[in-house]
Design brief:
- The structure is a single chain.
- With 324 residues, the protein is α/β, with parallel strands linked by helices.
- It is 53% helix and 11% strand.
- It has ten helices and seven strands.
- The strands form two sheets. A four-stranded antiparallel beta sheet has the order 2-3-1-4, with helices on both faces. The chain has a three-stranded parallel beta sheet with strand order 6-5-7, with no helix packed on it.
- Helix 4 packs antiparallel against helix 5, helix 6 packs parallel to helix 7 and helix 8 packs across helix 9.
Length: 324
């Protein structure tokens, strides 16, 4: 086999960690976080993800959480030499996702049968919410379905069929956004290699907070801020992840921007960035792919922000029009 004919070598990220024995809830929390980002165990304390910028960021946030909780962790990039093959590890990911899809398909079929049989008005009123919860679960699974497990097509088909039989109107109030004045005239700083959360934050800053804002992209570690700078989506930043909120959500609240259209965008950014499916936004996968395409096509951070801005402009106009 020639070099050109050989398949591309798969690169993996490995999280190697050790957790404190107590408290027990912390161990459960980390396990759930690993499940939420789609990592699979290749050894008892070694979890794998396919290597890319987004999965690396997921592991870095989790590493920070483990260390802050009293544990030890490290993240490394690796290729498999012996023992497990790339195909076997990919099969672990597919098996995990197919198990998730199978459970979802079972619940979707049960709800479909209920939809046919239900005539009581109070029970019928509950069905749209139940379908939305199924869609949310599908989005959560699809976000971590890295290699295209076979069960997704059946699950998508069943849920789309349920949605086609149910309609729901949403009332949204009209608000004009006005940003907090103490954020104007500042120099904004964030980590190099921007992706969805930082691109969205940069868009929000220049679109609604300060059109003339200067945004600088710096190394993520050991950066010492200068007077007047505001760091966003950085581990020690003034505006960054808080609890289960992504940086865009925190910035939206800090700026005092009360606008349902921006809140809808915040939910999409959250679901893409944190991959926890909290809001179950059906737009998340499509927008996530668009932003990933922008990042792949543009090495320069300013170019990524410039190319990403029209995506969020169009989203904002869509949600504003939808409210109207």
């Amino acid at each position: 086999m020639t070099d050109d004919a050989r398949p591309a070598e798969q690169r993996w990220l490995l999280l190697i960690h050790q957790l404190p024995t107590k408290p027990a809830y912390f161990r459960v929390k980390i396990w759930r976080r690993l499940q939420g980002i789609g990592a699979v165990a290749v050894k008892n304390t070694v979890y794998a993800l396919p290597a890319n910028a987004e999965t690396q960021e997921d592991f870095e946030w989790l590493l920070k959480e483990i260390v802050e909780g009293g544990g030890e962790a490290m993240v490394c990039e690796a290729r498999l030499v012996d023992g497990l093959s790339d195909g076997q590890v990919r099969a672990l990911f597919d098996a995990a996702r197919d198990e998730d899809y199978d459970a979802l398909i079972k619940d979707a079929r049960a709800l479909s049968a209920k939809l046919v049989a239900t005539t009581a008005q109070d029970e019928t009123a509950e069905l749209p919410g139940q379908v939305r919860r199924l869609r949310k679960r599908l989005m959560e699974i699809a976000a971590i379905d890295f290699f295209g497990a076979t069960g997704r097509l059946s699950a998508e088909s069943l849920i789309a069929g349920l949605e086609a039989r149910i309609t729901e109107d949403k009332d949204m109030t009209e608000e004009q956004p006005q940003a907090a004045t103490n954020l104007i005239g500042r120099v904004w700083v964030t980590r190099q290699g921007v992706h969805v959360d930082r691109i969205a934050c940069a868009w929000l800053i220049r679109r609604f907070i300060d059109p003339d804002a200067v945004i600088r992209f710096v190394p993520g570690k050991d950066y010492v801020p200068k007077p007047g700078e505001l760091r966003f989506d950085m581990f020690d930043g003034e505006i960054t992840h808080e609890g289960d909120r992504c940086s865009f959500e925190v910035l939206l609240g800090r700026a005092g921007l009360i606008d349902p259209a921006l809140q809808s965008i915040a939910e999409i950014v959250h679901d893409i960035d944190l991959k926890d499916g909290k809001f179950g936004r059906e737009e998340a996968i499509g927008i996530g792919h668009l932003i990933a395409g922008v990042a792949m096509a543009n090495k320069d951070d300013e170019q990524r922000v410039a190319q990403g801005a029209p995506i969020f402009d169009n989203l904002y106009q869509y949600f504003r029009t939808k409210r109207g």
